[in-house]
Amino acid sequence: MYNTTYYAATSLADAAAKIAADGDAKFLSGGQTLLATMKQRLAAPTMLIDLTKLPELKGISVEGDRLVIGAATKHAQVASDATVKGAIPSLAGLAATIGDPAVRNMGTMGGSLANNDPAADYPAAAMALDAIITTSKGEYKATDFFTGIFETALDEDEIIVKISYEIPKKAAYEKFRNPASRYSLCSVFAAEVSGGPRIAVTGSGNEGVFRVPAMEEALTRGWTADAVTSVKIDPETMLSDMHGSAEYRAHLVAVLAGRAVAKAG
Amino acid sequence: MADVKLTVNGRKIAKTVPDRTLLVTLLRDEIGLTGTHVGCDTSQCGACTVHIDGNAVKSCTVLAAQVSGAEVVTIEGLAKGDTLHPMQEAFRTHHGLQCGFCTPGMIMMGVDIVNRHPEGLDEETIRKELEGNICRCTGYHNIVKAIGAAAEEMSSGTTQMAAE
Residue B157: pLDDT band by 50, 70, 90 thresholds? Predict the structure, then answer.
């Protein structure tokens, strides 16, 4: 790891001021991606501004028809928290599939969303559950937040504070892992929210997480696995790499969507 | 430089280290606790697993400064004098190791798994929970057996739980 300095931010304003003063600084949350990247010398921020001590980024609560989770909440907390399990069990279940138990004890929801890895799990939940992402500067709908692989609408000095998910009528997450890396090769979050059915896919899209309007439309005529498995996905929109071709991933989307819809019941 | 204060295996320590110092580096190089191993250095193998405030984490992917103020338990903190922790004893009894390199991490994760499953453990759960700990010798079979046996021993209440 190249040399860096560590700073524990004391408030949102303090964190924003620090990053404004140093263009090569980066925000640090659980560090399970950033520190690993720095160790490989693929990133060399001059300063790490730790956001995890900020009280604004903590807490889990139900507010009306929404579940609100602080950005610094660790995956292990989301997976085991009684409020999350009660409100959106599929979200707790998703959190329990991220990384491994030790990674889940450090990695955070805000960190995962801000990084927007094309194989990350939370972006699929955010898209399917009509999440609202509250930052130090404003609010984003999930559909406006994810702008491409490792890209989001966040400014350099903007901090995710909390994420609110609509509590769905029903929902399920189906994850298909690469057997070696254990990352999603294709995973689908299916949900029925007040706006209608939602199908969100991670791990497969060549622009990152995406929704499948044709599948959502088909589900409005009846919540069955057959409604989605017959929808053809264009391989042109899929990632293609040593782990799986675009055609293979396009096929997986339909198969996994069918499983997720069936699991949601 | 970062001033890092930790309680390690019950002992208070204070060190001034470069900000980029990883927790595992502090444990091994600054306070001589070399039982915690660095295997892959890419947070995949789990040989560096320690407990921070009672939870298993990979100490090669945490800055020491990030966890200043925390309670850390390493493999050296499990035994009570000459009496091995039930998890250590079970690894010995069930031959849960061959070369032993991954063993400290396996044992620390094993204790964490048992702590998180007071309802008891079956083989499938143990195998799933060991996702982040890699062993290149044993084929895992005896590790799984050892953790299952230790879980029963620890829940029987006849032995002390791990220092958390």
Answer: low
